[in-house]
UniProtKB/TrEMBL annotation:
<dbReference type="Pfam" id="PF19890">
    <property type="entry name" value="DUF6363"/>
</dbReference>
<keyword id="KW-0443">Lipid metabolism</keyword>
<dbReference type="InterPro" id="IPR037483">
    <property type="entry name" value="YjjU-like"/>
</dbReference>
<dbReference type="InterPro" id="IPR016035">
    <property type="entry name" value="Acyl_Trfase/lysoPLipase"/>
</dbReference>
<dbReference type="Pfam" id="PF01734">
    <property type="entry name" value="Patatin"/>
</dbReference>
<dbReference type="GO" id="GO:0006629">
    <property type="term" value="P:lipid metabolic process"/>
</dbReference>
<dbReference type="InterPro" id="IPR002641">
    <property type="entry name" value="PNPLA_dom"/>
</dbReference>
<dbReference type="InterPro" id="IPR045943">
    <property type="entry name" value="DUF6363"/>
</dbReference>
<feature type="domain" description="DUF6363">
    <location>
        <begin position="202"/>
        <end position="274"/>
    </location>
</feature>
<protein>
    <submittedName>
        <fullName>Patatin family protein</fullName>
    </submittedName>
</protein>
<feature type="domain" description="PNPLA">
    <location>
        <begin position="4"/>
        <end position="155"/>
    </location>
</feature>
Amino acid sequence: MRNSYTAACIHELVAKNIHFGWVGGVSAGASHLVNFLSRDADRSREAFVEFGAHPDTGGLRSMVRGNGFFNAEYIYEVAGNHDSDLPFDYQTFAADRTPFRISAFRADTGDTVYWGREDVSSMPSLMRKVRASSTLPGLMPMPFIDDVPYVDGALGTSGGIVTEAAESDGFTRFLVLCTRGRDFYRKPPRSPRLIRRWFRGYPHVAEAVITRHERYNAARDHLKALEREGRALIFYPTNMRVENRERNLKKLQQSYEDGRKQTHDEWPQWMEFLGN
């Protein structure tokens, strides 16, 4: 889980009582969003470190049982209950009036959807949307909201970087947390035919997977343009050692510590940017 690295950023922002005028999240970043807005520094770490290694959160056995490599129903819709393994403070989240956007991809039409505070009425409503945004197609069961199937919002128009939504909402300066290094660009998939066959019931998902590199790379270029203009401060991990499927506790702990050290080193730069 590469977000074990950026979880340290969220922890520090909450611990230092930093607030923003707008927050956006897509895929695993949607979990960062809700942890940030619930002002829970410890949960921001636990969600991607200790909890990420919990046997009930997934693995090959979970996938064989039909729950997905990551057991999304448990992770997003069970574990956050007050008497479960990773309690979520919905009251604090609801009391924070910061505008936000969570992005997901409609599997039936190929449309990109952004949900905001106006679309959330309860903790189950919120967590279902976080789950939808985070659903890796092929690795996690597809959730339905109002009879509509959704998958990972990173397949949508944003490419997985939601500055487009912030700009659409009128914002002009951005702190962006990335889980890939500065020079990373996605390559086209090797087997488009196999992807189309795998997702033959959802052709819009297949085409989005096949072409995602185009939107992602364009979004990265746009970020760099914003950075050159002085309108974006971008956190690029400099020592990322894990991939998205990593569930080994020691490796996740090390990833978090690497992220914590980099956040500490770059903190003065963050404060200078945010203070301007």
